[in-house]
Design goal:
The complex is a heterodimer of chains A (161) and B (566). Chain A is α/β, with parallel strands linked by helices and 161 residues long. Chain A has 5 helices and 5 strands. In chain A, α2 crosses α3. Chain B has 2 domains: 56 residues, no CATH class; 417 residues, Alpha-Beta Barrel (TIM Barrel), CATH 3.20.20.240. In chain B, 51% of the residues lie in helices and 8% in strands. The chains are: A alpha/beta (161), B alpha/beta (566). At the A-B interface, α1 and α3 of A face α4, α18 and α19 of B.
Chain lengths: 161, 566
């Protein structure tokens, strides 16, 4: 399963982030500014471009083997789109890839989004520094988890052989 | 020559200036240093401590300013400006289905709004129907859903389309929405010569900003020019295009870039229309513009004044326009959405008021003021009313509308107007060397410039070089205050279902043969390169839907996909 780390997901590899725009929203200023800031912070960044479906984003996240998916939404359609993204990641066995969200998200929507499985919501006014640090932390936590899993998985395999 | 100051006076002022700078200023600085080492506008223009006649040494009053209502129109396009007629208070509005929007429009009219402006939802903006898979969750959210003629009829139920003017912020599907509007007006019995309003219909800026493009750049421009050509011939009161800097600015451009790119877009369109064989004085009076009013007060005012002067020169000197009206830059202004913040949202009322004041001092023809809840959602009635009242207070209480161009002659404002103009010409020259804006857009030049400026600005905010109250100075962490904002509530799912049902009903009830024939004729006209407007109007009257018409055109013109660069 893709929740198991591949060898390329070792400690030395640069953190890889997918910056995604979903739905028909054309506001790409935030997504591009964040993508640049992440690149300048030393991350490997892939930007999906506009008008992606949540399913396309989920496939891209798995295919590109990213550490974090960062979604930017200013269309007000965050609930249905994030729901579909998270469901698709789960379907692909990639629910371990943390998903974060930024944009014009009303504060009252944060809790329900987190319950749905969004790991972090960056409200308007969040600094790039905070976004970079959060993404780094989430990526590192996931890698650490992945390594633990890998060790136990290889033990299990060893026992089975 | 009509220089403002004679040699002798300037010499005397220069002597006094040197004395002030060398004796008085250092004394003050030693006691009280200045707050910053240097001060810059939002566009990065360095501003001095003081402006004097020395900054306007060769300032020729008649060639730079002249008189309002006369070339080069720096001081205003009308001789009497707001003393005779105030700007149009035109609130960008719309959400949900046509019923909700009809109610909102009536609410605004009742409270003194003087022009209408429709905001469409994303499916409408990119030309898909509410039951298209891409529309899921987006129907009615950022604006009103208008997939059919029937929806337009409902929006204007009880509103006389012969006496209001309506702006429609619509771009690739502009021919369809204009046809909806015209057909709905016809059904109300309004003759063509009484149909007034604006279609944004500015395709180039869609690639630079806003990003609700559909067709690739060349057919996108072709379709927009079709609308203009048709409108000039059939709808004498319609502004077929609103050449827009607003979105470019909101995407991160500086004031100078906003101005330069907008004018370069305008230049491209004028050339395209002339190439079609139209006479410049036939269409130029119908061109209109749209700018942002950001928070850096004087820079915005200077930008508006420079814009008028530059456009007048372009039309007269480059394109040989003869009519005064062809040289007029008529523009709408919207206060800046990106200048509003989520922290302590009530403060946005103040920001909007200051920006609106800049628009008025800059001589705008129409104005939208943002609501303070803009960082969260489309405005509530409560917030929209405050925004409208802000304009009314400026118009009726402050007295700023009582004198034409009251800041004309300010040493600083005139210097800044000149400076912005000069910097904007440099951009325009560069774009001209690239072969005009269509080529520049295809090469991604303005896109990169805007992106760079957006990133630069964000870094300046983070470094504390640009201060935003509540965000990086007097920082507010008070989430409870944000929770108190009464947001507009509506049942999006119910609206989406209603809109899906209605579009299905329209598809079932229409005359199938008529509909099919209309779409086939449209396709053939597009393939032949004919002006598509009459065919779109015909299809609309046969109740073809927005998605069907755009789908037909996409088959002929193709679809644009932006390279995912950042």
């Amino acid at each position: 399963m893709s929740s198991l780390p591949s060898s390329s997901r070792g400690r030395g590899r640069r953190i890889k982030v997918l910056v995604a725009k979903m739905g028909l929203d054309g506001h790409d200023r935030g997504a591009k500014v964040v993508a640049r800031a992440l690149r300048d912070a030393g991350f490997e960044v892939i930007y999906t471009g506009l008008r992606q479906t949540p399913e396309q984003v989920a496939y891209a996240a798995v295919q590109e083997d990213v550490d974090v998916v960062g979604v930017s939404l200013l269309s007000g359609a965050h609930f249905p789109l994030m729901r579909r993204l998270i469901a698709k990641l789960k379907e692909l066995g990639a629910e371990d890839i943390p998903v974060v969200l930024g944009g014009t998200i009303p504060v009252i929507d944060v809790e329900p989004l987190k319950k749905m499985g969004v790991r972090e919501v960056f409200l308007p006014g969040t600094s790039l520094k905070e976004i970079i640090e959060t993404i780094r932390r989430l990526a590192e936590e996931r890698r650490a988890r992945g390594e633990t899993l890998a060790v136990s998985a290889s033990r299990e395999r060893g026992q089975g052989d | 020559m009509a220089n403002l100051f004679d040699e002798k006076a300037l010499k005397e002022i220069a002597e006094k200036y040197t004395e002030w700078e060398e004796k008085i200023v250092p004394e003050w600085l030693s006691r009280l240093p200045e707050r910053q080492k240097e001060f810059t506008t939002l566009s990065g223009i360095r501003v001095k401590r003081l402006y004097t006649p020395l900054d306007l040494k060769d300032f020729d009053y008649l060639s730079k300013l002249g008189f309002p209502g006369d070339y080069p129109f720096t001081r205003g396009i009308h001789a009497t400006m707001y003393r005779a007629r105030l700007w149009t208070m035109r609130m960008f509005s719309g959400y949900g289905g046509p019923e909700e929007t009809n109610k909102r429009l009536k609410f605004l009219i009742e409270h003194g709004e003087t022009g209408l402006s429709l905001a469409f939802d994303y499916p409408t903006l990119v030309g898909v129907d509410p039951d298209d898979p891409m529309a899921e969750g987006e129907v009615g959210v950022v604006g009103v859903s208008v997939p059919t003629l029937l929806d337009m009829e409902i929006i204007f139920d009880g509103i006389d389309m012969g006496s209001v003017t309506t702006n429609m912020t619509i771009n690739p599907p502009a021919p369809v929405l204009l046809s909806f509007y015209v057909a709905a007006a016809e059904k109300q019995g309004v003759p063509y010569h009484k149909i007034g309003g604006t279609t944004q219909n500015d395709p180039l800026k869609e690639f630079i900003a806003q990003k609700s493009y559909v067709f690739p750049p060349e057919p996108a421009v072709k379709v927009a020019m079709d609308l203009i050509e048709w409108s000039v011939k059939h709808l004498p009161k319609w502004n077929p295009i609103s050449i827009s800097g607003y979105h470019i600015r909101e995407a991160g451009a500086t004031a100078v870039q906003e101005l330069a790119f907008t004018l370069a877009d305008g230049i491209e369109y004028v050339r395209q229309l002339i190439a079609r064989g139209l006479d410049v004085d036939e269409f130029a009076p119908r061109l209109s513009f749209f700018f942002a009013a950001h928070i850096n007060f004087f820079e915005e005012i200077a930008k508006f004044r420079a814009a008028r002067r530059m456009w007048a020169r372009i039309m007269k000197d480059w394109f040989g326009a003869k009519k005064k009206r062809s040289m007029w830059m008529r523009f709408h202004v919207q206060t800046s959405g990106v200048s509003l913040v989520a922290q302590e949202p009530w403060n946005n009322i103040v920001r909007t008021a200051i920006e609106a004041l800049a628009a008025v001092l800059g001589g705008a023809q129409s104005l939208h003021t943002n609501s303070f809840d803009e960082p969260f959602r489309v405005p509530s009635e409560f917030a929209a009313k405050i925004a409208l009242r802000t304009q009314q207070i400026i118009a009726y209480e402050t007295g700023v509308a009582d004198v034409v161009d009251p800041l004309g002659g300010s040493y600083y404002v005139e210097w800044l107007t000149d400076e912005i103009e000069e910097q904007a010409w440099k951009y325009i020259d560069r774009i001209e060397r690239m072969g005009g804006m269509l080529e520049a857009v295809k090469n991604g030049y303005p896109q990169r410039e805007v992106m760079d400026a957006a990133y630069r600005f964000q870094k300046e905010v983070e470094e504390g070089k640009r201060l935003i109250v509540g965000v990086n100075i007097f920082r507010s962490e008070d989430i409870e205050e944000i929770r108190k904002v009464p947001l507009l509530e509506f049942d999006q799912r119910e609206i989406e279902e209603r809109q899906k049902k209605r579009v299905k009903m329209v598809r079932e009830m229409r005359n199938k043969q008529k509909w099919e024939r209309a779409l086939n004729e449209l396709r053939r006209a597009a393939e032949r390169g004919e002006n598509i407007m009459p065919y779109v109007l015909n299809a609309v009257k046969a109740y073809a839907t927005l998605g069907e018409i755009m789908g037909t055109l996409k088959e002929v013109y193709g679809v644009y996909v932006e390279p995912p660069e950042f």
